[in-house]
């Protein structure tokens, strides 16, 4: 952490969510070269939503640094910040603060973690397995706010006399040094760049925020993942049948992930995925990258879910294999297909999605496994065993609806409409309860 003398200048409230680009290009080609050591390069982060704009250049960023708990990590940057639209009515502040915070994205075992923000998929579950969606307001840096945050943090303070007057284009340079605690969890961390101001009268720094119409329209300000320790190969969550909306969710996750991940259900409670008989296209979807497509349509609220989360994965470098176990126990091997590039919910496949016939009713097991590489050749595995049930739909509609009042002497209408109709032997089970008695 680097600090300089403190004086006063006027303040603005602006959070800078950044679009990103990289000068170190992503590779291309087929095949599986396995993991490789990332090479350093220059990364450029941009914020282009009025009324304020900025560009941050990160030269010689090396995500392959050999970093361990108890060690240190440094990030040099050059920031051009355009505050020409600033007005004094925005308040008075004493400092401009540039910070980096690394969210713990994959743990030591390579398992995905949704960290402080949940979009479409969550690793925070109730005891019964329901996903907990969480948005705690603007992101916090523990070193500055005393709450939340991450062990992977650093900040740099610029005093007023180094950047006055405020309403102009600022050229700022510095270096952020992260001092990892000895007990920092191993895994992969996602560095994010933040800009804060310390406003006169406020207890903690706030983001240079609030003037953008919708910060959610722009990607998050992220850099490539940084490895801490010797974690296992990260496992990117893959779902399938994302177009099959059911019970407030789309698609399903593999059985292996059920104890630690769940798709968000905003319009109902999830359960087994049940399809009508037919043919369905099967291909991997990436709900952590395309969260909006992974949430079933609801009336309002979807506008706060990004349609695309930035990452440095190269969706043209990877592949997937598919096998299907039918209800009668027989196996169908549908082969292997290469990734070609980015589609609406994940990678496109060189021969299109796997065409799977779900003609028979019953339980199917789909074994879909593969990998994708990032721009530095690092491998992210995905997939597993997916359970799908196929059945004809059956609905019940009673003549008496819940909440219907009855007066003394009224008769209960026992009519039940079944759709579609089918032959059956109807019966009934009655459990009388005596008034004022626990007997039944």
Characterize the structure shown.
This protein is mostly beta strands and 440 residues long. It folds into two domains: 9-228, no CATH class; 236-390, no CATH class. The protein is 1% helix and 40% strand. It has one helix at residues 142-145; strands at residues 9-10, 19-22, 41-47, 53-61, 72-82, 92-106, 121-122, 152-159, 169-179, 187-199, 206-207, 226-228, 235-236, 240-246, 249-252, 262-263, 274-275, 278-282, 313-325, 331-342, 347-349, 354-358, 362-374, 379-390, 395-398, 416-419. The strands form seven sheets. Strands 13, 17, 19, 20, 21, 23 and 24 form a seven-stranded mixed β-sheet that branches. Strands 1, 6, 8, 10, 11 and 12 form a six-stranded antiparallel β-sheet that branches. Strands 2-3-4-5-9 form a five-stranded antiparallel β-sheet, with no helix packed on it. A hairpin with a 4-residue loop joins strand 23 and strand 24. The longest helix is centred in the N-terminal third of the chain and has 4 residues, at 142-145.
């Amino acid at each position: 952490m680097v600090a300089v003398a403190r004086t006063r200048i006027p303040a603005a409230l602006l959070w800078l969510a950044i679009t990103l680009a990289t000068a170190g290009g992503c590779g291309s080609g087929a095949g599986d070269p396995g993991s490789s050591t990332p090479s350093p390069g220059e990364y450029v982060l941009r914020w282009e939503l009025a009324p304020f704009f900025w560009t941050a250049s990160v030269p010689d960023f090396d995500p392959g640094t050999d970093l361990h708990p108890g060690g240190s990590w440094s990030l040099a940057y050059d920031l051009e910040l355009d505050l020409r639209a600033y007005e004094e009515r925005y308040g008075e502040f004493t400092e401009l603060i540039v910070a980096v915070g690394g969210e713990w994205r994959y743990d030591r075992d390579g398992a995905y973690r949704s960290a402080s923000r949940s979009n479409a998929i969550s690793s925070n579950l109730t005891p019964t397995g329901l996903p907990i969606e969480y948005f705690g307001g603007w992101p916090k840096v523990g070193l500055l706010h005393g709450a939340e945050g991450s062990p992977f943090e650093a900040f740099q303070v610029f005093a007023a006399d180094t950047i006055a007057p405020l309403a102009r284009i600022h050229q700022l340079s510095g270096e952020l040094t992260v001092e990892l605690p000895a007990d920092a969890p191993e895994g992969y961390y996602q560095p994010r760049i933040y800009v804060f101001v310390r406003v006169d009268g406020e207890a903690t720094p706030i983001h240079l925020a609030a003037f953008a119409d919708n910060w959610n329209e722009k990607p998050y300000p992220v850099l490539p993942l940084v490895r801490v320790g010797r974690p296992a190969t990260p496992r990117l969550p893959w779902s399938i049948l994302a177009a099959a909306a059911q019970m407030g969710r789309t698609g399903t996750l593999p059985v292996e992930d059920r104890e630690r991940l769940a798709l968000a259900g905003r319009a109902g409670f999830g359960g087994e995925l049940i399809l009508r008989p037919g043919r369905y296209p099967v291909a991997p979807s990436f709900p952590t990258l395309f969260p909006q497509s992974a949430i079933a349509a609801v009336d309002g609220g979807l506008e706060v879910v990004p349609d695309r989360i930035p990452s440095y994965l190269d969706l043209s470098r990877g592949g997937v294999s598919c096998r299907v176990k039918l209800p009668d126990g027989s196996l169908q091997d549908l082969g292997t297909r290469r990734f070609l590039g980015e589609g609406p919910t994940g990678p496109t496949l060189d021969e299109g999605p796997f065409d799977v016939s779900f003609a028979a009713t019953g339980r199917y097991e789909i074994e879909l496994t593969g990998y994708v590489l990032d721009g530095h050749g690092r491998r992210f595995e995905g997939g597993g065993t997916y359970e799908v049930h196929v059945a004809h739909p059956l609905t019940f509609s009673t003549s008496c609806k819940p909440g219907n009042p009855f007066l003394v002497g009224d008769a209960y209408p026992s009519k039940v409409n079944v759709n579609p109709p089918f032959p059956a032997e109807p019966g009934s089970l009655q459990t009388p309860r005596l008034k004022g008695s626990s007997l039944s």
